[in-house]
Design a protein that fits this description.
lyase; binds prephenic acid; 10 helices; 315 residues; 3 domains; alpha/beta; D-Maltodextrin-Binding Protein, domain 2; Prephenate dehydratase; Alpha-Beta Plaits; aromatic amino acid biosynthesis; five-stranded mixed β-sheet; 29% helix; ACT-like_dom_sf
Length: 315
């Protein structure tokens, strides 16, 4: 069983995602993973660094939430060291539980702690139900629960799993300003053999564009020209100088697809830096769109024609 580092401590949504990657909840035929297979770490960067250092085979980290957007800590840490690639994704519904020390009532609650991404998803609920409580940031939702146990905060907004993990009382369950909120998580490894293409894949790259007119529009045009549907674009500062950004771009398809490989080579020529962040099956299994003239066979036939032109066999 590979050892997976995840953004912890125990009881985070990320632990739940890690267990989903391992096949939990257990079925009749599949035993629950032993806890020794999972290793909670305090930060997203530490989870990724554990993989870089060879202390873990893989890391599970949150990457994108349907309400609050990308998880900047994940994007920054993915490109802040030796290369890593995502090999799988999973999407979890996000509903929160509010935990307090046993016996506490809403009137006792002066501070509520949670991860900033979680706070953004329960702002309305907190304003309505705990209007006079100060909302404080914690490193994760489960770290907030640990803080409540330690007496640092009066309440924590957590994943439902934290209610089972920590001896705290549930003040409210099923809390969410947006009912169908979801978060997408990645399973990340050191570069190696890629997951096989399935026809329902996603590819992720990070690209720094050249400082010239139209550089970003060229990136978008390359994707559009290859018939590739973009599923996300996000920019983060490179941290080198003001105004220099790295674009995190997700799109449909697998690097083994001819159109995707051709588009990536075109991006490589145009951008000052391109980092491949993985090709993996989409969690929703939605088949990739292949528009006319962009199938593998279209690319291979064009290449065969070019070869015979170059060899003087065709004109
Ligand atoms: O703190 C946790 O429980 C996490 O797993 C992190 C995280 C996030 O970063 O978005 C995961 C899902 C929820 O959207 C809220 C917090």
């Amino acid at each position: 069983m590979p050892r997976i580092a995840y953004f912890g401590p125990e009881g985070t949504f990320t632990e739940q995602a890690t267990r989903a990657f391992l096949g939990d909840p257990p079925s009749d035929t599949r035993p629950a993973p032993p806890d020794s297979a999972l290793r909670p770490v305090e930060t997203i960067a530490a989870a990724l660094d554990a993989v870089r250092a060879g202390d873990a085979e893989a890391a599970c980290v949150p990457v994108e939430n349907s309400v609050e957007g990308s998880v900047a800590a994940t994007l920054d840490a993915l490109v802040a060291g030796d290369p890593l690639v995502a090999v799988a994704e999973t999407v979890l519904p996000i509903r929160f539980t509010v935990l307090v020390r046993p016996g506490a009532t809403p009137a006792d609650i002066r501070t509520v702690a949670t991860h900033p991404h979680a706070a953004a998803q329960v702002r309305g609920w907190l304003a309505e139900h705990l209007p006079s409580a100060a909302v404080l940031p914690s490193s994760s939702t489960a770290a907030a629960a640990v803080g409540v146990l330690a007496g640092e905060f009066d309440a924590a907004v957590t994943a439902p799993a934290a209610a089972e993990r920590y001896p705290l009382a549930v003040l409210a369950a099923d809390v969410a300003d947006v009912r169908d909120a979801v978060t997408r998580f990645l399973l990340v490894r050191r570069p190696g053999p890629l997951p096989a293409r399935t026809g329902a894949d996603r590819t992720s790259v990070a690209a720094v564009t050249a400082d010239r007119i139209g550089a970003l529009s060229e990136v978008l045009t390359v994707l559009a020209g290859h018939g590739i549907n973009m599923t996300r674009i996000e920019s983060r500062p490179t941290r080198n100088r003001l105004g220099e950004y790295r674009f995190f771009v997700d799109f449909e398809g697998h690097v083994a697809d001819e159109r995707v490989g051709d588009a990536m080579a075109a991006l490589r020529r145009r951008c000052t830096e391109v980092r491949f962040l993985g090709s993996f099956p989409r969690a929703d299994q939605a088949p990739n769109t292949v528009v006319p003239t962009t199938s593998d066979e279209d690319f291979l036939a064009a290449r065969r024609w070019l070869t015979s032109v170059r060899e003087g066999r065709e004109a």
